[in-house]
């Protein structure tokens, strides 16, 4: 579990940081006022990251930074001023980054920086460079940012690693490499993985005119000229990964139903069509429709109906967490069950139906019960629309047979 230590001796600043942390950080956080208190916390807990003030009443010369780093805790420094000597001193110590606290926006930036770094943990980055020294330097800098770092000594090796491991989300590639240069590597990668799936930063120490433009035209997200400053490297990586995450969030929002958080009909149809085309015999489709839902809306209003839908969606997510679950209509849901044993699927749906019938739905303090009718169909009936029609016919039969039952299409 991730845990963050924040050390700040100003009551006002700590109050600001506490408020911002509650908005942006969903991890365990400990707040300390001094070096002494920091040591006590560090003796009790393992920390993923530390955000610390450079000067404290009992540590005027940055001793708290030295202590967190000695404990192998990646550290971001808060400082009220910075000169070249202090900057070099902090970089030599090995801090992740420093933030100059001269206004409220500085604290917001610091907390968002911590949030970004925490998201990096477990994320894989690949460094492709034929220079062992360059790879080692970038590995060290990326590991400070909590990335899991892999290395490739040329473009061909990097391309092979990327094809084998889709968990790699960031590539730093040099231009001049044997067997396959950086341009050729980027072009080959973009045939399979877009800018929204893999972030690429081009690198080069060459002074060739237009090199950065060429990298970006071939598909890189950004470019860095070597040698680069620590701060420039850090900011480019952070901004590039932030863009990647924002795109992923936008896509996720586009795929989700606004009310229940389940997949929406459009995304469900796109994904189900791919699954059923590839291995139709390996899936069973279930369509579920809440019984007499109109009466709930009539009695409790649409707000009450929405409350029931969200509670049903939560139950579906809990029970079928290994399946694709979607809301495809007003009170209609779909579940794609893996496997081709209809008896197993029918039993699973009957278990869910019984569980739902016993569930107490709370609407503004009032308790009500609901039931669901379910239609099942194998996914080898042809196109997606034909499969859905088959499941829908079974669902209609369940409704005609006094509801609250599971029917298999035949």
TrEMBL record:
One of its GO terms (molecular function) is diguanylate cyclase activity. Pfam families: GGDEF, Response_reg. Its cofactor is Mg(2+). Residues 281-410 form the GGDEF domain. One of its GO terms (biological process) is cell adhesion involved in single-species biofilm formation. CDD domains: GGDEF, REC_1_GGDEF. The modification 4-aspartylphosphate is found at residues 53, 174. PROSITE patterns: GGDEF, RESPONSE_REGULATORY. Keywords: Phosphoprotein. It catalyses: 2 GTP = 3',3'-c-di-GMP + 2 diphosphate. Its EC number is 2.7.7.65. It comes from the Bacteria. One of its GO terms (cellular component) is plasma membrane. Residues 3-116, 124-241 form the Response regulatory domain. Gene3D superfamilies: 3.30.70.270, 3.40.50.2300. InterPro entries: CheY-like_superfamily, Diguanylate_Cyclase, GGDEF_dom, Nucleotide_cyclase, Rev_trsase/Diguanyl_cyclase, Sig_transdc_resp-reg_receiver. PANTHER family: DIGUANYLATE CYCLASE DGCM-RELATED, REGULATORY COMPONENTS OF SENSORY TRANSDUCTION SYSTEM. This is diguanylate cyclase. It comes from Pseudoalteromonas aurantia.
């Amino acid at each position: 579990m991730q845990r963050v230590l924040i050390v700040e001796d100003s009551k006002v600043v700590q109050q600001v940081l506490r408020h911002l942390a509650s908005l942006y950080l969903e991890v365990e956080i400990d707040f300390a006022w001094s070096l002494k208190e920091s040591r006590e916390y560090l003796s009790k807990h393992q920390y993923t990251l530390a955000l610390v003030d450079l000067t404290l009443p009992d540590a005027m010369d940055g001793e708290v930074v030295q202590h967190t780093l000695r404990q192998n805790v990646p550290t971001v420094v808060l400082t009220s001023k910075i000169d070249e000597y202090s900057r070099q001193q902090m970089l030599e110590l090995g801090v992740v980054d420093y933030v100059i606290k001269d206004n409220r926006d500085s604290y917001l930036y610091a907390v968002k920086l911590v949030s970004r770094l925490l998201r990096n943990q477990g994320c894989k980055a690949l460094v492709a460079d034929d220079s062992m020294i360059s790879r080692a330097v970038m590995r060290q800098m990326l590991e400070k940012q909590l990335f899991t770092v892999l290395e490739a000594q040329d473009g061909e090796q990097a391309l092979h690693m990327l094809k084998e491991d889709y968990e790699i989300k960031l590539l730093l590639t040099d231009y001049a490499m044997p067997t396959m240069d950086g341009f050729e590597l980027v072009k080959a990668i973009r045939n399979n993985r877009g800018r929204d799936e893999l972030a690429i930063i081009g690198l080069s120490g060459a002074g060739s005119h237009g090199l950065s433009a060429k990298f970006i035209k071939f598909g890189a997200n950004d470019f860095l000229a070597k040698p680069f400053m620590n701060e420039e490297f850090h900011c480019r990586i952070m901004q590039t990964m932030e863009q990647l995450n924002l795109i992923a969030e936008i896509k996720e929002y586009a795929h989700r139903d606004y009310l229940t958080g389940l997949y929406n009909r459009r995304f469900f149809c796109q994904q189900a069509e791919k699954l059923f085309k590839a291995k139709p015999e390996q899936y069973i489709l279930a369509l579920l429709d809440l019984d007499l839902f109109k009466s709930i809306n009539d009695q409790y209003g649409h707000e009450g109906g929405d409350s029931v839908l969200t509670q049903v969606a939560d139950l579906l997510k809990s029970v079928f967490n290994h399946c694709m679950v979607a809301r495809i209509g007003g009170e209609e849901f779909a579940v794609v069950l893996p496997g081709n044993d209809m008896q197993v699927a029918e039993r699973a749906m009957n278990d869910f139906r019984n569980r739902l019938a016993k569930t107490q739905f709370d609407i503004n303090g009032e308790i009500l019960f609901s039931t669901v009718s379910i239609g099942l169909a194998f996914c080898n009936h042809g196109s997606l629309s034909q499969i859905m029609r088959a499941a829908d016919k079974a669902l209609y039969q369940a409704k005609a047979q006094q509801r609250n039952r599971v029917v298999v299409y035949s």
